[in-house]
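pasting for ref
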Amino acid sequence: MAAACDEQKEEQTFLPSHRPQPHSIREAILSKICYPSQPARRLSHRLQHCLSCLLCVLLPLGSANLLAKTEPLKPAAAEAPSAFTSRQAALSALPPLMLWVGERPDDVRTWIDGSARQGKGAADNPAPSIQDQRMGVAVLDTTVLLRDGSASVRRRQQSLKLPPAWYAQNRLQQKAPVVTIVHIEMARGVQKPALNERQKRAIVNAVVAAATRSPSQVVQLDFEVMHSQKPFLADVITRSRDALPANVALSVTALASWCVGDAWLADLPVDEVVPTAFHMDGEAKRIREVLDHDGRFPRPECQPSMGLSLDEQPWPSKLRSQRLYLFNRNVWSATPMASWSVRLGAIFP
């Protein structure tokens, strides 16, 4: 403390006519010691020494408290994007074009980036936000094989490369346009599935699990059945809907014939029906005539979305569906988007 007073006195030599004005708590306290009033001069040296010791303890505490009060608040951590509050909102947020990706290594970045460059205002905004994507991906997440009375579940094993902008902290961002698919395979011949309760539960559990891995909050069930197996599929769909969260949309693929004259899908609790207008076998001619005439399927539940294949041309002359799912026999990374840009141009207004 004596050294501090000496330091203060040295500062006075530059301003001898008056005392320096205190600019801090420390200076204010030191001024009272270095420039004591008349009564204070009568204090014994012992008392001054005690006061000095006391100040040596209090000053650091006062400084710490001052820093604690004046330290700027640290910015709060960025909040994660909120989830869609309803399955209708989740479904409507999907882009107008979705690429089906099967169980094989693939890379869709060229297609995704190409669709972004074709969009309106692409020159001004070359990197659209996660909510403004014009192309998304429906990726095979789980395969369930039904054989005899058993069901084996297999998760996806192959890698899929997606745009880096869709990731945050090494995981897909919430609301990224990625739909997870559960595909059902059925053995044939002597191992024909029994379609029992155990197999039904296995499918429902797979759908619910795949939904937890869907950043878009949309999960798709791909299950083609014969006419006699429709009740089994209907019950699987109903149970899946009951088991899914209310804000997760359930999409199902459908044979084209189910959307022409058969109304059995109308009463099922699904949010999206995607009729596959390819690989239609004997019904191809009749269904193609229907699509060429109206640009969509007659059944209302089948009109918002449609599935087409790159290897089956020509496509219907006019398409009125709001969302198109594209099937590719080859990998997307080996399919140049430039050769399809003209035909896809009508989908991107």
